[in-house]
Design goal:
By secondary structure, the protein is mainly α. It is built from 13 helices and four strands. The longest helix is centred in the middle third of the chain and has 15 residues. The radius of gyration is 21 Å and the shape is globular.
Length: 258
């Protein structure tokens, strides 16, 4: 959604997916971009509605630039606005991180962007630097270029974040298919930490993951309205710390005792 549409985000969600339950307080989390997307259904079509265009856990700094630089694309069904190619490239590279490079298709999507028209590399470098996402963007670009044999102008990145990126998303993780995608959620949670600086934004993202806001839990169906938030959090951490006990407790039939 464009930034000025977030003021009526619940109305937009209702228009796309009538009857979609939205917990109290969820609109505030969307406007603060704590919640960065929502899966909706338009009839039988699933819609991934982005409230933040890059969706990496950190709020996009250049939100207005992303939307005001969109371009018009003519289609058989009319005209639509699309991201300018440099920002589309950044989005695809970041999403490769989120999925952990499992299949070749997204690599080819990136090659098509590179072949479609000359990119403004100065603009691209400036955009990535302003978001301080040099490590995940340029490391991903180098990985795609290596797999496809593309000559590229991406800068080299080094340092601790580059080293940890190689441990998590390096050559061993590429084109791993469904197995790599199954492991992706646990790794993708660390993507935001590979931005430079942005300590406050990172702290808020870590808090969101470790202690999710109540409306997020209700939206995900993990907490029923009216149930104790503190009790849910305590039970969750007990299960993570004592997985054997949690498995046994779930296996006990209703009404039985240990």
């Amino acid at each position: 959604l464009a930034p000025d549409a977030l003021a009526d985000v619940l109305g937009i969600v209702e228009a796309i997916d009538p009857g979609r339950p939205c917990p109290a307080g969820i609109d505030g989390l969307i406007r603060r971009r704590v919640l960065q997307h929502m899966d909706l259904h338009l009839g039988t079509v699933q819609v991934d509605l982005h409230f933040d265009p890059l969706k990496v856990g950190l709020p996009t700094r250049q939100l207005d630039e992303v939307w005001y630089s969109t371009q018009v694309l003519d289609t058989a069904q009319g005209t639509v606005r699309v991201l300018r190619p440099e920002i589309e490239l950044v989005l695809l590279l970041l999403h490769l991180n989120k999925d952990r490079f499992p299949f070749l298709g997204p690599f080819l999507d990136i090659r098509r962007i590179l072949e479609r028209a000359p990119l403004d590399w100065d603009y691209l470098h400036g955009f990535v630097a302003a978001e301080v996402l040099e490590v995940p963007v340029w490391k991903s670009f180098a990985a795609v270029a290596e797999v496809l044999g593309i000559e590229h102008e991406a800068p080299r990145v080094a340092g601790l974040r580059a080293w940890t990126w190689d441990r998590l998303w390096g050559r061993h993780a590429r084109l791993g298919g469904d197995e790599a995608r199954a492991r992706a959620p646990s790794v993708s949670r660390l993507l935001a930490l590979h931005a430079s600086g942005r300590i406050g934004d990172k702290a808020r993202e870590v808090r969101r993951q470790l202690l999710p806001h109540r409306p997020l839990l209700e939206l995900a169906g993990r907490l029923e309205p009216g149930r104790s938030y503190a009790g849910h959090v305590a039970r969750t951490y007990v299960e993570h710390l004592t997985p054997g006990r949690a498995r046994r407790s779930r296996a006990v039939p209703e009404g039985a005792s240990l």
